[in-house]
Every structure is written in C-alpha cells, then in structure tokens.
Amino acid sequence: MSYVRTPEHRRLKAELIGRWRPWERSTGPRTDIGKAKVARNAFKGGMRPTLRNLARALRDHARSLRSVS
Predict the structure, then answer these.
(1) Is the separation of the CB atoms in 29 and 35 below 8 Å?
(2) How sure is the predictor about 1, in pLDDT bands with cuts at 50, 70 and 90?
(3) Contact 38/28 with Cβ under 8 angstroms?
(4) What is the pTM of this model?
(5) Rounded to an integer, what distance in angstroms lies between the CA atom of residue 17 and that of residue 23?
C-alpha cells in the first residue's frame, strides 16, 4: 500500500515543522571538502565541456588555416 498524506496529516506536519524550525539551525557545509562537494550538486554530467573544447579547437584550426592562405 502506498503512503497517502491526508489534509490532516499535512496540517500536523506543517505545525510540527513550524515548531521545530530546522532552517534556523542549518549551517551548510563548513569544511573546504564539504563546500567542494555541494558545489557539484547541480552537475548532471554530459558533453558540454567536451563540446566547448572541440569548438575551441575548431576555431583555432580555422584561424591557422586562414593565416596560411
């Protein structure tokens, strides 16, 4: 059976979190290692850096061909 949140459950959770107020104690990463780790949170991987390097190489190559002719 799946977990179902009723309106009553949501109200109670909101009230508890309002009393608990975890955002007031949140400090984020404190060490350099922790900061480096969270800096990559949004990174999804992919080809963008590779494509950027390829485009740069192609531009450089085109410039060198223009200077030869």
Answers:
(1) yes
(2) low
(3) yes
(4) 0.40
(5) 10
Are 60 and 52 within 8 A, CB to CB? no
Q: pLDDT tens, 11-66?
A: 999 999 999 999 899 889 999 999 999 998 887 778 888 899 999 999 999 999 99
In angstroms, the Cα distances linking 46 to 33, 36, 38 are 23, 19, 18
Calpha distance 58→56 (Å, rounded): 5
The C-alpha atoms of residue 46 and residue 49 are separated, in whole angstroms, by 8
Whole-angstrom distance, CA of residue 39 vs CA of residue 68: 44
- Report the first-to-last Cα separation within the chain, whole angstroms: 73
Q: Amino acid identity, residue 54?
A: L
